[in-house]
Amino acid sequence: MKRVVAVRIVRVCSAVIGLLACGVSGAAWAGAPDAVSSIEVDASVGGTPFRHSWEQAFGSDRADMALTESYLRNADRTREATGFRYVRFHGIFDDTMAIMAPDGAGRMHYNFRKVDAVYDGLLAHHIRPLVELSFMPSAIGSDVLRRDGGLEPLVKWKADDPAKPITDYSGGTLWYRANVTPPAHMADWNALIRAFVEHLEQRYGAEEVRQWPFEVWNEPDQATWVGQPRMESYFALYDNTARTIKAVDPALRVGGPATGAIHWVGDFVEHVTREHVPVDFVSTHIYANDPPDLLRLPKSPDNTGNTVCDATRTARRVIDRSGHRDLPLYITEFGADWDIHNGSADRPWIAPWIAQTVHDCDGLAPIMSYWTFSDDFEEQGVIANELPGAYGLLTTHGIAKPAFNAFALLHRLGERRLPAGSGGDDVLATRRKDGAIAVALWNGDREQGRERHLAFKGVGSVKGATVVVIDRSHGTPAALFEAMGRPVSPTRQQADALIAAARLPAPQPAICAQANRCDIRLPPESLALLLVPGSPQ
């Protein structure tokens, strides 16, 4: 979600872990010699668990978008490529969901028909919600004008005029004017949460809903929460929500604080511990270009320079120091860039950035939800261009960006991580269940190519090894899109051609001149996956 805090933010067109986000000419590296290095992959050992935490969940815009054809089509494409299990979005309680209204007798009437349509659709596509409980239905919010349907109380312009209502386009956050006020009366919010959770269990069954994490609100440290004092008022909302959910079903999972830039993590854990408030996970967000004065990360010898992973490691340590080592940490939003206008997902540098983040964040959080899988996204208004579009891995027409192909390649990694020797900071070596050795290698340099000599210990032969490489010319629609004149809204014929141009390249035979060695050439800003066949374990 776009950062909207009141701090000085410098628009980033600069390095993210040394990977320059600004566009560069492909000719820049043509004459530059490759940097050559050797890596030994030890396949003689069992390795360590390598959980694919980076592809367990993906973010998306808001609940309404889940009812669109392009959203569901892109959800299917992403699930096929990554096997992701959960999707997180804002606004299941937004006014456009028509979830509640006064019934005329002083009581609230709940209407869950659109909620059902959203969740029915996701489950039919084999995706579960990571339920973000937001935003505030205007019928129970503390904004009086919104609660009264956008009308001010009756007024008279002159003493002898009849009383008239004055239409007021009252404030809200994001393009769709989300109501981010606290409830006028906490009892009304609690009643909504109880009715909502009871309805979900009645419709989908308790065993199913117990697999849905419930996260209270979104970034209450920023402009999506206007309660005052900000932190204390959010804690009151969390306390009431968590206790109400557990009163319905103690087996349901609930957590927070869902803050940006790992804010309040320590305060939150201290609060729920002191007040004996139920909590099953801690959640927060982090983007690679969150500015240092917002993050305030402590120096540590374990820091890699990867902001996302250094911040995640810091949050994990804060939780551990509180005595809650068993409390999971969910990064429910992460990405290279929070600024929607930078178009990071369609830049070639994003592929090695994603790979480096997977490498550096390994073992820090069981769920890391990339923001977002689809350009069906309207936080700042309807997207004006097909590319770069928004944060999505796929455009609204389903055109894959380099970020999508990076996730698709990394999905092919195995479940056991193998040692990759010294100098393996840009190598991920794994063993798959089918016995194959899958190795991801990347080059974030914008000018110089790299050549990697991979020697395999404990592998009798590398015969039949294949490699897939994505770079500035492969796994991206950029060249064809430019040749088309950058159409704002491609025709169906243009979209089909762009989809074909953006496909992940087919595996090619790897250069393996020796029985246990393969040589991989990595162009600037590239990601490769080497697959060495093996026997099932």
From TrEMBL:
<feature type="signal peptide">
    <location>
        <begin position="1"/>
        <end position="30"/>
    </location>
</feature>
<keyword id="KW-0732">Signal</keyword>
<feature type="domain" description="Glycosyl hydrolases family 39 N-terminal catalytic">
    <location>
        <begin position="173"/>
        <end position="503"/>
    </location>
</feature>
<keyword id="KW-0378">Hydrolase</keyword>
<dbReference type="GO" id="GO:0004553">
    <property type="term" value="F:hydrolase activity, hydrolyzing O-glycosyl compounds"/>
</dbReference>
<keyword id="KW-0326">Glycosidase</keyword>
<feature type="domain" description="Glycosyl hydrolases family 39 N-terminal catalytic">
    <location>
        <begin position="39"/>
        <end position="142"/>
    </location>
</feature>
<dbReference type="InterPro" id="IPR017853">
    <property type="entry name" value="GH"/>
</dbReference>
<comment type="similarity">
    <text>Belongs to the glycosyl hydrolase 39 family.</text>
</comment>
<protein>
    <submittedName>
        <fullName>Xylan 1,4-beta-xylosidase</fullName>
    </submittedName>
</protein>
<dbReference type="Pfam" id="PF01229">
    <property type="entry name" value="Glyco_hydro_39"/>
</dbReference>
<dbReference type="InterPro" id="IPR051923">
    <property type="entry name" value="Glycosyl_Hydrolase_39"/>
</dbReference>
<dbReference type="InterPro" id="IPR049165">
    <property type="entry name" value="GH39_as"/>
</dbReference>
<dbReference type="InterPro" id="IPR049166">
    <property type="entry name" value="GH39_cat"/>
</dbReference>
